[in-house]
Q: What sequence folds into this?
């Protein structure tokens, strides 16, 4: 406990992150000598004591990088977090891991694809790693949680592990604690700040054996995460999308540059013995092959354009779209409709 206290004293000192921490250890030889050099004031000591008290109340675990439970992949990265806080089940670190990232503003088709893919990985004994943001991250976590059992997913946060962010994912946060783990290098109680999300992305990339990039703009946090994964020599896959959608620019560019494999589904990773059917909603073959449905893709199309394409009135189009929406085959998005 004294060793942990001293490590936190150093890490909670303003201006000291993993790189500076390691530099001080190299310079002074051990954590006790570093603490003596810093001569921390009582304010820092009180702060660390309060943090440890909160951790005990909430059942939060500290994992130092000399602990055998510390994630092996992460430990191999230069200047990894010397101490992680974990809320949930530490057995998640015993599994092979896959990171899944993408835009917060994912399309309906993108969310469904990522969720199904995450479910397939969880069924094959992988833990799914993401950042608990809305959109793609949420789809990845929820897809993995469809599979029974624990240790299914890890959420890496940019703030303290007790700080739910975003607030819309409060229920998901609780599910992950029950069925996986919330982890962070940040102090307990800390609100996420913009600069910490890039650091968080390092660890999302570093925790896993492979990373899958969904829809993502060219200049986005998800693309940064993918670049980190490439730097760490991880197996990187990207899900291609329509070139007219800006959310396709990220994955399509990595595929084009030869930096990522093209991901077309679970069959790229696992032997799919069962027949895959699109008839998930018990719709008739005729309904699935509906002429209107054939005109839709991942780019939203307005009712007026659809009416012109299928040579029907807008009122007829609206009736058909209601039926298809109820069947879960289409969704309204950005003033138009997309195929799911």
A:
């Amino acid at each position: 406990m004294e060793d942990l206290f001293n490590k936190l004293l150093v890490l909670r000192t303003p201006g000291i992150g993993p790189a500076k921490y390691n530099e001080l250890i190299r310079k002074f030889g051990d954590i006790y000598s570093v603490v003596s050099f810093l001569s921390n004031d009582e304010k820092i000591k009180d702060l660390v004591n309060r943090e440890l008290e909160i951790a005990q109340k909430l059942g939060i675990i500290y994992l130092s990088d000399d602990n055998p439970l510390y994630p092996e992949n992460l430990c191999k990265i230069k200047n990894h977090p010397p101490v992680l806080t974990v809320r949930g089940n530490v057995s998640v670190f015993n599994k092979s891991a896959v990171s899944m990232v993408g835009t917060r503003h994912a399309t309906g088709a993108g969310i469904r694809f990522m969720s199904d893919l995450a479910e397939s990985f969880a069924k094959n004994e992988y833990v799914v790693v993401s950042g608990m943001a809305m959109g793609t991250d949420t789809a990845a976590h929820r897809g993995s949680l469809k599979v029974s059992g624990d240790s299914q997913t890890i959420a890496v946060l940019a703030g303290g592990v007790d700080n739910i962010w975003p607030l819309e994912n409060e229920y998901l946060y609780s599910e992950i604690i029950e069925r996986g783990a919330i982890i962070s290098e940040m102090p307990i109680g800390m609100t996420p700040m913009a600069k910490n999300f890039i650091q968080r992305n390092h660890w999302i990339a570093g925790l896993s054996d492979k990373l899958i990039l969904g829809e993502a703009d060219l200049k986005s946090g998800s693309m940064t995460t993918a670049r980190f994964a490439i730097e760490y020599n991880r197996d990187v896959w990207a899900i291609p999308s329509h070139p007219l959608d800006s959310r396709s620019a990220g994955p399509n560019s990595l595929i084009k540059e030869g930096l990522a494999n093209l991901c077309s589904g679970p069959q790229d990773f696992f032997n799919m013995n069962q027949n895959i059917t699109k008839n998930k909603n018990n719709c008739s073959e005729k309904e699935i092959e509906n002429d209107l449905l054939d005109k839709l893709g991942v780019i939203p199309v307005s009712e007026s354009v659809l009416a012109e394409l299928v040579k029907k009135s807008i009122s007829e189009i609206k009736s058909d779209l209601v039926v298809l929406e109820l069947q879960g085959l289409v969704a309204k998005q950005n003033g138009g409709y997309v195929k799911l």
Observations:
- The chain has three domains: 1-58, 90-268, 285-339.
- The first helix runs from residue 2 to 11.
